[in-house]
């Protein structure tokens, strides 16, 4: 099956809420932070989901994931990436990250919670941990979390 990436449209809202809300539980479970769960509808404005570019992945005719962040000729930062848990391990996350990287003119950075299984996925794509910090959990500042900054650097010619 092919994964198609396209810009987000307002008709995708219910799908990305469903995907975020299911996948966020996996993310927080791995970090031991299930009590910090908030839905996308509760957090998207405060966390600035639509401040940057947002793309969705379609798989088998349905929205199966999304990615958001800032990207330009200098590089980029992935601020959101979620895949429908029912469609994990089908190349959707890889397609989203590769789509993002292809638009960046330099290094791409992202943050991953300590304990999140996605860290191994990002490292398999060439991301390298450059820092580890602890502080308030983005989106639910009542909780403290540890996160890792991972950076992908374009290969040198």
**Helical run tally:** 4
- How much of the residues is beta strand, in percent? 35-45%
List unreliable stretches of 5+ residues: none
What is the strand arrangement across the widest sheet?
Answer: 1-2-3-4-5-7-6
Number of E strands: 7
Structural class: alpha+beta
Shape: globular
Question: What oligomeric state do these chains adopt?
Answer: single chain
Which H/E pattern describes the elements?
EHHEEEHEHEE
* Structural Rg: 15 Å
Percent of residues in helices comes to: 25-40%
What is the typical, i.e. mean, pLDDT?
Answer: 94
Q: State the major sheet.
A: 7 strands, mixed
Distance between the termini: 32 Å
Q: Overview of this structure, please?
A:
By secondary structure, the chain is of the alpha+beta class. Helix content is 26%, strand content 36%. It contains 4 helices and 7 strands, in the order E-H-H-E-E-E-H-E-H-E-E. The chain has helices at residues 13-30, 40-43, 92-103, 118-124, and strands at residues 3-7, 53-59, 62-72, 75-83, 108-113, 128-136, 144-152. The chain has a 7-stranded mixed sheet with strand order 1-2-3-4-5-7-6.
Give me some keywords for this one.
157 residues, alpha+beta, 26% helix, 36% strand
